[in-house]
Structures are given as structure tokens and as C-alpha cells.
Amino acid sequence: MHRSFLFYAAAAAGLGVALGAFGAHGLKSTLTEAQMATYRTAVDYQMWHALGLGLVGLWAERHPGLKLLRWAGGLMLAGILLFSGSLYLLSLGGGHWLGLITPFGGTAFLAAWLVLAIAALRRSGNP
């Protein structure tokens, strides 16, 4: 599972760089300031959580039996898809109903970090 998380982390980060560049150069003249801010938020959260997913993948490589890491990685991936994905679509003029999806992605992010913290506490006694 750790290799999958490392793959998804690299793919999400690479895609984040590409989408960030596309937004900065290709969309700057077509989006409103508010839409551009939403787009940047999507890129920022995608990049931070791609790094987080990479951390989970590296940690899972050292502790493959720690099921909490699978949960944390899955939640981060879901958060990237739901949170950043819905914000990308919203900023590009997608239906306002997409705003209903965004909080589910944010909740997945929060849950991922909480699960990761619990995993850290459980592992703190074992090097």
C-alpha cells in the first residue's frame, strides 16, 4: 500500500504543479479575482496534501502493518479529489452545487491528520 501512496503523492504533486502553472498563465486573464483565489486554494491544498500523502507512504514503508496509515492515506487522497477537485470545477464555472462537496473533502483532510496523529501516538513508544 505504501508504494501506491507514494505514486499518488507524486502524481498529485506533479499535477498540482501543472495546474498551478496553467492557472497562473492560462487562466489569469479569463477568471475573476474571486475565481482565481478559489483556484489557488485548490492548488495549495492539493500540494500540501500531496506532501502529506508522501509522508504517509514513507511511514507506511517502515511500518507496513499499521492500519491507521492506510486510513490516513486514503482520507488524504479522498480530500484531494473532493476538496481540490470541487474547487477547481467551481472556479472554472461549474455549478454552485459543487460547493456542497467541498466540505466533505475538508473533513477528509481533517480526519486524515487526526488519524495520522493517533498513529504517531501509538508508535511513539516503539522506534
From TrEMBL:
Belongs to the UPF0382 family. The keyword Transmembrane helix applies. GO terms for cellular component: plasma membrane. The chain crosses the membrane at residues 44-61, 68-91, 97-121. InterPro entries: DUF423. It is found in: Membrane. The keyword Nuclease does not apply. It comes from Methylomagnum ishizawai. Keywords: Membrane, Transmembrane, Transmembrane helix. It is a multi-pass membrane protein. This is Uncharacterized membrane protein YgdD, TMEM256/DUF423 family.
